[in-house]
Amino acid sequence: MVAVVDKGKRRVESWFGATRKRFGWFDHLVRGYTRFNEQNGNSLAGSVTYFGFLSFFPLLAVGFAILVYVVVVYPDARAEVGDALTATFPGLIGSGPGKIDLPNTAGAGVGAGIVGLAGLVYSGTGWVDALRDALRAMWLQPVHKAPNVVLKKLWDLVVLVVFGVALVASVSFSSLATSMTRVVLGAVGLDRVPGMGVGLRILAVVVAVAFDAVVFAILFGVLPGVRTPLKVLARGSLLAATGFEILKLAGTFLVGRTTSNPVYGAFAIMVGLLVWINFVSRITLLAAAWTATAVPDAAEDDDAATLPDEVLTRLDGLPVDRVRRPLDCEALLYREQVWVGSLAADAGWTPDETGRVRGLYVQRIVERLRDAGFEPAALVSSTKPGSLRDLVHQVRVARRARRFR
After folding, report:
1. Among 13, 93, 32, 2, which residue's Cα sits nearest to residue 291?
2. What is the sign of the dihedral through the CA atoms of 365, 370, 371 and 373?
3. Are 92 and 259 spatial neighbours (Cβ–Cβ below 8 Å)?
4. 367: Cα within 13 Å, side-chain hemisphere
5. For residue range 193-245, what is the model confidence (pLDDT) as tens digits?
6. What's the N-to-C CA distance of the chain in angstroms?
7. Picking from 86-90, 208-212, 299-303, 398-402, which range would have the lowest pLDDT averaged per residue?
8. What does the alpha-carbon distance between residue 71 and residue 3 come to, in Å, rounded to a whole number?
9. How far apart are CA 41 and CA 130, in angstroms?
10. Residue 277 CB neighbour total at 10 angstroms
């Protein structure tokens, strides 16, 4: 019986390997999902979900405080914002029990908006920080440790504002494009043609995907700190936007089942939000992992065109056979990243060049470790950056790195 199971397992593994070699897109999907799992993507998505959940209600308060002034100029703004929120958070907006009542929220006034702004600065910058660390993990980059905490928070605030503006612009232009199309079709008498309603719905989805892709391109291009080729970035952003739009379309069922479950009772709306934000976070990190694993493919056939000769020579002589446990892996990567930094300083490389070489070099080291039979563990430390445990861990890594010299 055991022999039959082993034989079946070998056949499945053989078929799986042959399929990966035959279909490049399938191999890319497997690499992306493997990267997501290796870097503890589910746990990182949970961290992003936590700060995203904290940011939601302050963001809502600030948005409706601004809306009080917008409706003076544009009376239909409240209804359109409500429609946009309903599309983005299906099943959570309405006047029934366990739902967010937008008129009551808007009536909270400017005072609630000021309090919400303070909460948004705290939770929003925390969300940016958590998302940055999660995205950097997908690109195999170490946890970002800024020397100046104040400057880091200010930069996170700038990123949050840019992201917010991009998100608002995405929703606004998407709604505007759909509305203008409907007006034009009505003007020429085509609005009642059979099937035109379905066509408008498809157009709305396509426009939404296009603008969402711009938002994801900003996130993937700025937060990881790695220069990604524009073509790869565009594909990854489009994948994330498509997944996000599919989740929006299926969200009415997913979130509706959560909020209608009597087990959750009064907490139904909070559980629904957590479920929704967690799904979005996972899709974002999965798309980021897919994007990150596409970067080596552009240079896989010609390492000499992407890595300097000194790096290629050192790569060939790496003692990967001496790696026996996760600490050895982390120590080797630590040593090599320090070496790349010193090489960059001597050669006068720009920060972008240094980041590109370091990221690709780490990719190659991980591939060598796998070829040697060692599956690298998650490269992101579970200890809190700056804590005593983190300091002790870094000392252990540095001491272990000396053994590879």
Report:
1. 32
2. positive
3. yes
4. 13
5. 666 666 777 777 788 888 889 889 988 988 888 888 888 899 999 999 999 88
6. 48
7. 299-303
8. 73
9. 12
10. 21
Residues in the chain: 405
Task: Please name which of 326, 356, 327, 329 lies closest in space to residue 340, comparing C-alpha atoms.
Answer: 356
- Four-residue CA torsion sign, 88, 94, 100, 102: positive
Amino acid at 171: V
Look at residues 43, 38, 33, 15 and name the one whose alpha carbon lies nearest to residue 288.
Answer: 33
Q: Half-sphere exposure of residue 267, counting CA atoms within 13 Å on the CB side?
A: 5
DSSP E strands in 113-237: the ranges are none
127 vs 54, 59, 135, 204, CA distance in Å? Answer: 9, 12, 12, 29
* Biggest distance spanned by C-alpha atoms of the chain: 78
Residue indicated by tokens 């909270």: 108
Question: Which amino acid type is present at position 337?
Answer: Q
Query: Which of helix, strand or coil describes residue 93?
Result: strand
Distance, in Å, from the CA atom of 57 to the CA atom of 287, rounded to the nearest integer, reads 26
Q: Which pLDDT tens digit goes with each residue over 140-151?
A: 887 777 667 778
Rounded Cα distance between 329 and 322, Å, is: 9
Q: Which two tokens stand for residue 34?
A: 């493997």
d(CA 75, CA 202) in angstroms, rounded, equals: 27
Q: How far apart are CA 293 and CA 300, in angstroms?
A: 11
Distances (CA, A) of 347 to 105, 116, 304, 341, 351: 58, 49, 17, 10, 12
Backbone angles phi, psi at 93, to 5 degrees: -105, 130
Q: Could you read off the pLDDT of 149-200 as tens digits, one per residue? A: 778 778 888 888 777 777 666 666 666 666 666 676 666 666 666 666 667 7
Token pair belonging to 71: 């409706």
Q: Write down the pTM of the prediction.
A: 0.63
Cα 236 from chain centre: 10
| Rounded Cα gap, residues 198 and 193, in angstroms | 10
- Residue 300 sits at φ, ψ, to 5 deg, of -65, -35
